Amino acid sequence: MSNSTFTDLPPLPPYSLTPRPPMIPGISDAVLQLLAPIVAYWVVSLFFHMLDTYDLCSHYRLHTPAEVLKRNHVTRYEVVRDVILQQIIQTAFGLVVASFDPIETVGKEDYDVGVWAQRLRLAEDYIPKSLTVVGIDALSFAQKLSTKYPQLAGLLAGGRYPTPSFAPWELATAKLIYWAAIPFLQFFVATLIVDTWQYFLHRAMHMNRFLYTTLHSRHHRLYVPYAFGALYNHPVEGFMLDTLGTGVAYLVSGMTVRQGMWFFTCSTIKTVDDHCGYAFPWDPLQHVTSNNATYHDVHHQSWGIKTNFSQPFFTFWDRLLGTAWAGGDVSARYERDRISAQKKVDADTAAAAAQASVVNSPTIDLGQAKKQASASQRQVLEDKENGGARILKEEAREEQEARQSLRRNTRRKSGFDAMSISDRVAGSLHNRSPTILHADGVH
């Protein structure tokens, strides 16, 4: 075999560079990279808005329409206005940055694949040495396989093949690395960077009173999130949290313009989905990780505002640093809010008051849950601009009314089945199942 093998590295193919043609004629990829996330934002938001408007899939809603009407402290007009402002700032910044980028070119792809094939060939040289450690004579073994399995024989011999070109498996593997493995790794690294950036900055905006009252409290006027409110932020916060965060991830991961377009678009869709207000069992974005609409919705409640800071992809920072909601099943809290909001709507329309009840939760870490809820309520109380003190007073009154109603119901009946009452009340309020809500985001 040694008399007919080639040990030199195969030559790399020549190449010539030309500007990359745009994906859509007439629109440069740099502009498309900025427009695609905006289009995706409003298309996905419109889908969820249609579900809200026509009351479709209501049994998957985290909140009822009455809650959207009564618990939020900002109008839809203000939300749309601020989101558009953030997108204008984001687009302007992106255009400025893009003006400094070099023109992307094509034509070097086969050469780059060849480079990876050469790296594989160089790595093969260590195979005979490695097999020798475990007592296998790789060269003799390769000699026996050379007739029937020349490719395997060349691999075992340390990259010595009967032809001067790359082996088919080397080229196939190199293409897989170049076209799939590296882009996947870049996307994954970018998601980790975004999650890290947003977690610590988001957490700082809750821990620092100035940052919260000046910037982040605006986003928390939405106690009941909905899809097109995902980017409802103070313009400065939106720039720092979203624009800079994804921009840094894009640059550090070394993505191309088109890769960046997909990354920005996917991040946008994930953010909208996390604020959509629906817990769908068939939504893949809500099951790839535990960071989903249910998980993030806890953060928007007055009792969970100091927890669940992670966004938009994973939850590992919350779990590592102990800021994940530790109160277990939150169905009772959600049920109270649904009933309270419905009672306010009924009062406004001179209708009969809705029946109130309290449901039991499974065994939880009460100490940690109380600590988290207390910290969250202190922050709500300090948020004077958004009526924090009034919100807590209303919740305290509603909780007292719910407990009084519970005692009345208990006196009327010899037995008390809290879960069955919860199910009946939930069914009367938009046919909503209470079992859909869990603190860990798993449905």
Automatic annotation (TrEMBL):
Extract the ranges annotated as region (Disordered): 369-419
> Which protein, by its recorded name, is this?
C4-hydroxylase
Would you say which domain of life the source belongs to? Eukaryota
Residues that span the membrane, as ranges = 30-51, 176-201
Which GO-annotated molecular functions does the record name? iron ion binding; oxidoreductase activity
Q: Which Pfam families match?
A: FA_hydroxylase
What is the species of this protein? Capronia coronata CBS 617.96
Annotated GO biological processes are: lipid biosynthetic process
> What cellular component terms from Gene Ontology apply here?
membrane
- The main location class comes to membrane
Q: Which residues form the signal peptide?
A: none
Q: Where in the cell is it found?
A: Membrane
The Fatty acid hydroxylase domain, residue ranges: 188-323
Q: InterPro entries this protein is in?
A: Fatty_acid_hydroxylase, Sterol_Desaturase_Related
Q: Does the keyword Transmembrane helix apply?
A: yes
Q: Which UniProt keywords apply?
A: Membrane, Transmembrane, Transmembrane helix
Output compositional bias ranges, type Basic and acidic residues.
380-404
